[in-house]
Give the backbone structure.
Amino acid sequence: MVINNSQKQIISIPKAEVADLDFYYGSFHALKGINMTVPEHSVTALIGPSGCGKTTFLRCFNRMHDLYPGNRYEGSIWLDKDTNILGRKIDPIEVRMRISMVFQRPNPFPKSIYENVAYGLRVRGENNRRLMDE
């Protein structure tokens, strides 16, 4: 947040900017031309009826749709003005380490409880079994 002293107004710095976002589940065009700014240090809510695309939109932010074949993004989501997280050269795992998602219902990976809990450490390169056991 920046305060403009000459006009005594607060100017919000964008944390994320969505530009011309379209998303497809195969041939189904689920999200159409979304543009949105998410200000830094703010709370942003998405409100709408069931099935309107809120979760589909949020899943774009951490590239969860990449896990299923046939899904595709068009447009961009800029994080901190310098990284298009939908860019082809951006590693989805790196995006997920910066942007997390909490589900209404638990969605564990199809692994043991231990492996689900240890997953975050493994992704970050930790292989020390004793540390993971703790």
Summary: The longest strand covers residues 14-25. Helices lie at 54-61, 92-98, 113-123, 129-133. The mean pLDDT is 84.
